[in-house]
């Protein structure tokens, strides 16, 4: 996996909404690479999305859509860092949807899907606990014993 960190040449500013012509330097595979936002999205959207996920900087709305379209074409195994933002195939939906939708709307159904597909999405510890808590409130019998034990810590 490539090492993705923000570099000092064109540092990120959290108080800036980035446009396509803004330059950003990212440390990728041992070297600093400077490109415009547009170039990052078209040439290396995965590295750009990883940095955005780590640093939480803001893009102009149309750039969000373009980045989303570019990332959509990359296999899910390479974008596990997106967690609940990752698009998944979920029963009851015709198209892929962000995992956050069933996670929030149908916690028990999502929990059962997650048990059958543990390698398709990466949940943070906090997200797992929130899911287990919601499932416990809605249908405690659905929880596996190991997950019940985790909640009692």
Helix vs. strand class: alpha+beta
Distance between the termini: 33 Å
Report the portion of residues in β strands: 15-25%
As residue ranges, the low-confidence spans are none
Mind describing the biggest β-sheet? 3 strands, antiparallel
Oligomer: single chain
Helix content: 40-55%
Structural commentary:
This protein has 153 residues and is an alpha+beta fold. It is 44% helix and 15% strand. It contains 7 helices and 7 strands. It has helices at residues 37-43, 45-55, 61-72, 100-105, 107-116, 125-139, 145-151, and strands spanning 4-6, 17-18, 23-28, 31-36, 58-59, 87-88, 97-98. The strands form 3 sheets. It has a 3-stranded antiparallel β-sheet with strand order 1-3-4. A two-stranded parallel sheet has the order 2-5. A two-stranded antiparallel sheet has the order 6-7. The radius of gyration is 18 Å and the shape is elongated. The two termini are 33 Å apart. The model has no long low-confidence stretch (mean pLDDT 89).
Q: Summed up, what is this model?
A:
The chain has helices spanning 37-43, 45-55, 61-72, 100-105, 107-116, 125-139, 145-151; strands spanning 4-6, 17-18, 23-28, 31-36, 58-59, 87-88, 97-98. With 153 residues, it is α+β, with helices and mostly antiparallel strands. The strands form 3 sheets. A 3-stranded antiparallel beta sheet has the order 1-3-4. Strands 2-5 form a two-stranded parallel ribbon. A two-stranded antiparallel sheet has the order 6-7.
């Amino acid at each position: 996996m490539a090492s993705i960190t923000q570099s000092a040449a064109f540092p990120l500013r959290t108080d800036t909404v980035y446009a396509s012509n803004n330059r950003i330097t990212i440390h990728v595979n041992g070297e600093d690479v400077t490109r415009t936002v547009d170039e990052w999205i078209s040439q290396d959207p995965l590295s750009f999305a990883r940095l955005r996920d780590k640093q939480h900087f803001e893009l102009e709305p149309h750039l969000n859509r373009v980045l989303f379209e570019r990332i959509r074409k990359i296999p899910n195994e390479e974008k596990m860092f997106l967690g609940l933002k990752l698009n998944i195939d979920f029963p009851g939906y015709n198209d892929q949807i962000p995992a956050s939708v069933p996670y929030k709307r149908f916690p028990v159904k999502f929990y059962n899907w997650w048990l059958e597909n543990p390698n398709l999405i990466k949940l943070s510890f906090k997200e797992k606990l929130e899911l287990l808590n919601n499932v416990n409130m809605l249908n405690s019998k659905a929880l596996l014993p190991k997950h019940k034990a985790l909640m009692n810590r």
